[in-house]
Design goal:
Shape: elongated
Order of helices and strands: HEEEEEEEEE
Mean pLDDT: 79
CATH architecture: Sandwich
Number of domains: 1
Low-confidence stretches: 23-31, 134-139
Structural class: mainly beta
Number of strands: 9
Largest sheet: 6 strands, antiparallel
Strand content: over 45%
Number of helices: 1
Amino acid sequence: MNLGRARYIYAVAFVVAVSATGLGAGEARAATPYALRTEAVYRLDPAAGAAAIAVSVTFTNTTPDSSGGFSSFETVPLSLQAGASVVAARDRTGSLRVTLARQASRTVATVVLRSALRYGQSVVFTLTPMPPIPTFGCAPRR
């Protein structure tokens, strides 16, 4: 399999896994205490043998406060494809802490927010698998 096709398959697999596990394009609202909106951007540089994926995430707390307390989220758990090994997250201020929990069929990336997200509030950050896509030190075919 040539390197270009391998990178394409990796990118497609990442998107399919993200879409199928709750981080996909669109908005999740039904029976959830939050709204999740994502948008994936792919940057391919065949000449350099490099590719990168960045997923913009908007997470909104849609759970009203109860009479006995506040509704808040301190973390955002996201399901990724199995085998994701290093994931970075950034907001407009800088890097966010991410922990990974590997399971047989997926990897859960938990992004720690800078402050608790109360009812009606949203947070926006970018999730990036690192390294973006392995190049295996190969030059593209000509």
